[in-house]
Amino acid sequence: MKKLFLVGFMGSGKSTLGKSLARQLKRPFLDLDQYLEEKTGKSVPELFATLGEDRFRELEAESLRELDGMDDKLVVACGGGTPCYHGNMDWINEHGLSFYLKATPRFLLSRLNLSEGPRPLIDPVPEEKREAFIRDLLSEREQYYAKSRFVIDIPGKGADEVIHILGHIN
Ligand code: S3P
Question: Rg for the chain (alpha carbons), in Å?
Answer without folding.
Answer: 15
